[in-house]
Design a protein that fits this description.
The chain is α/β, with parallel strands linked by helices and about 280 residues long. It folds into two domains: about 150 residues, 3-Layer(aba) Sandwich (Rossmann fold), CATH 3.40.50; about 120 residues, Hypothetical Protein Tm841, Chain: A,domain 3. The chain contains eleven helices and 13 strands. It is globular, with a radius of gyration of 18 Å.
Length: about 280
């Protein structure tokens, strides 16, 4: 039986339990608070991250893992008798992690195929879980890659952010739109499209933006997987009630991790959907 190890980065927002249960290895991305550098996942919890954000005079920053972090994981796969590695990263337009994982693959003692998910948070995570399922079923390297790449066009990520300040300061969305949103007190809905974060809708109130997001899930059709991500949002239960029992599948609810939380900011609620083929 083929043994393929699935690897991802911590921007996928997989919980420790989800990663462990699916046999996925997570390489942490670095979060910086001034001169303090902290490896994400599982060392930096969401609660600790948001507490540090409140106490910090400046917004945190993120940095891609070192090539050595990926090389170490690839070498461990070889020592464990794996035939190869499929490494699935967040969008290459949002981070250098994809390029770093590719560079590390050239030093791997086993074949490595790096997949650019074109996604982030649990949009990336759902693709990873599908790939891990293929690997657990005995799929070879090519089969696991096909499973992952086949999920990418069927995956969507939308989110309600409390402010565009974090996205604008992090360079993830245009400053003109951030200014417009702040002037008009708009509660924007953003999406990951073509590998980048873009504005999807403008809503006048937080309640309307959450209702809009819930309606998007209800209209999504036949879903294979659904995840709800929460960045210290006090109204998470309100949103889950809006989803109700009409959703096609039971959502997996996870905390928005420090990497995505750095750029999305507190109060973010997102939905990550994988449509059936």
């Amino acid at each position: 039986m083929s043994r393929v190890r699935v690897v991802t980065d911590s921007a996928s927002d997989l919980t420790f339990e989800l990663a462990q249960a699916s046999g996925v290895v997570v390489v942490p991305i670095t979060v910086r608070f001034g001169s303090d550098e902290l490896p994400d996942w599982p060392q930096l919890s969401s609660d600790d991250f948001w507490a540090r954000c409140k106490a910090s005079p400046t917004l945190p920053e993120t940095a891609a893992p070192s090539p050595g972090a990926f090389v170490e994981v690839y070498q461990q796969a070889a020592e464990d008798g794996c035939d190869g590695v499929v490494c699935i990263t967040l969008s290459s337009d949002l981070s250098a992690t994809y390029q770093v994982a590719q560079a590390a693959a050239r030093q791997s003692p086993v074949p490595v195929h790096v997949v650019d998910s074109r996604m982030v948070t649990m949009g990336e995570g759902l693709i990873v879980l599908e790939a891990a399922g293929e690997a657990a079923a005995g799929g070879d390297l090519d089969a696991v890659v096909r499973r992952a790449e086949g999920c990418i066009p069927r995956t969507s990520v939308l989110g309600v952010v409390d402010t565009l300040e974090h996205l604008e300061k992090g360079g993830r969305i245009g400053s003109a739109r951030a200014l417009l949103g702040s002037l008009l007190s708009i509660k924007p809905v953003v999406q990951v499209r073509n590998g980048i974060v873009d504005e999807e809708s403008k809503q006048r109130t937080r309640a309307r933006s959450l209702r809009y997001l819930a309606d998007k899930v209800h209209a999504a059709g036949d879903l294979e997987r659904l995840a709800v991500v929460n960045g210290a949002a006090e109204d998470l239960d309100v949103f889950l009630a809006m989803l109700g029992e009409a959703v096609p599948v039971t959502p997996t609810v996870v905390d928005l991790g420090p990497v995505v939380g750095t750029h999305a900011g507190p109060g973010t609620i997102g939905v990550c959907m994988l449509r059936r083929a």
